[in-house]
Amino acid sequence: MKKCDYCGKEISNFEMYCCDMCEQKALKYYKNEKKYRNVFGFFDVICIVSILIFCFTALLFSAKVALTGSGVSLVVLGLAVAVFPMPTLNQISRFKIKKAVFTTRLCGLILIALGCVLFVLGII
Ligand SMILES: [Zn+2]
């Protein structure tokens, strides 16, 4: 049985989506994805690089600076993931858009929470 590309509901073999709403949401998602994927990828790399730099700082200077710095970077990365969730194509074909976006957003929130914990550990 084929499934709706957006919500994952079962549909007939002749359709792509279960309803007009899903089709519109999916099209909107693909449009945004095309528009933001590069910006987001760039942003991702910057955050990950800065986390690495802060980890390196930990070895040279103090663990506190590293914790605070990586905390902030993680929060920024988490915000980017939560606001512009870009699941991989693999995730989308497995879970369909709705669920993949939700899971990615959840990961963003977890990153934010983790970042806050690191930040607090760094300043106390
Ligand atoms: Zn649907």
What characteristics describe this protein?
binds zinc ion; elongated; mainly alpha
Describe the structure.
This protein is mainly alpha-helical and 124 residues long. The chain has one domain (2-123). 78% of the residues lie in helices and 3% in strands. The protein contains three helices and two strands. It has a two-stranded antiparallel ribbon. Strand 1 (2-3) and strand 2 form a beta hairpin. The longest helix is centred in the first third of the chain and has 41 residues, at 20-60. The model has no long low-confidence stretch (mean pLDDT 89). The chain binds zinc ion. Zinc ion binds next to loops.
Q: Helical element count?
A: 3
What's the total number of strands?
A: 2
First-last Cα distance: 55 Å
Structural class: mainly alpha
Identify the strand order in the major beta sheet. 1-2
* Oligomerization: single chain
Strand content: under 5%
User: Can you tell me the residue ranges where pLDDT is under 50 for at least 5 consecutive residues?
Assistant: none
Helix content: over 70%
What is the domain tally? 1
The whole-angstrom Rg is: 19 Å
The set of bound ligands, ions and cofactors reads: zinc ion
Largest sheet: 2 strands, antiparallel
Shape: elongated
| Sequence of secondary-structure elements | EEHHH
Q: Calculate the mean pLDDT score and round it.
A: 89
